[in-house]
Target: Conjugative transposon protein TraN
Amino acid sequence: MKTLSFLACLGLATLTLSASAQKSTHRRHRTSTVSGQIASVIPGAAAHVGPATYLPAAPTSTQKILSLQEQNYIGSYRMTVGFQKTTHLIFPYAVSYVDLGNGGIIADKARGAENIVKVKASQQGFPETNMTVVTTDGRLYSFLVNYDANPRVLNYNLASTDVSASSAVVPLAHLSNMGVTQSDLEAYSRLVLDKKKGPHVHEQKDNITLALQGMYTQDDVFFFPLHLANSSNINYDVDFIKFYIRDKKVAKRTAIQESEVTPVFVYNASQNTIPGPGNIDQVYALRKFTIPDDKNLVVEMFEKGGGRQLSFVVTNSDILKARKLKK
Model:
């Protein structure tokens, strides 16, 4: 009986030792694995324990992130509009695009006036919104609009804005309804100024000269190079230069029929003062057109705050002689 008890105890001890040995072996295996991982990350750590395990490197992004600088910012005009009153904005050229920030305001071009936009509130107390306007000469105008039940100003004249000094007027828009971009028009205009030869037609009055120095065409656009000269000692501030088609002869008691031709681009538009004495050169780009034999194209220049007004006439036969530009 004692022998059996001794054998049973011996067997239990053997099982216990076997289980302890397995646990010890398992612990050594885990320690070896962890040490191998540490050695793969920290050079020289547990280098004697098993082969190192390497993890794949994270992919490196090649995308270049650009930051906007202050010179990229475009400023905005501030204006207020009311619910019971309409505000009008007058631009130097016809309006080709209007975008509104939200439905708190409504805007539309004035009927019969392509360069005037009318704006008013569609709801009282609307939150601040914005409005963007692009004109046919490719300039972008930005506005921040707030509600005012009784706005102090109802009419804004943007036609007199000095675009060279305004951060809210940007001459960078490309005209999508034409086959050429603004950069094309600028390049063609510089080419026209290099080619100009003597006055084609002109008028001289009060020591001021308005001269058309040839006519050119490219991509369904006419280019009119204008030379403005001042031989007096008094500066001539150009208010605007207008192109319109008018009847050659008008019978008595008959209203004069005029149709304005709006330029799509003006080269050197910021030069609006002819120094006394001095001169400036500009190029006006107009969409391709022809006129009947009983009508003329009239080019007219008005002085701001003065009476020195000049004009000359271009006939249809003159227009048909326009020269093709070579790119």
User: Anything to note?
Assistant: The chain has two domains: 72-175, 182-324.
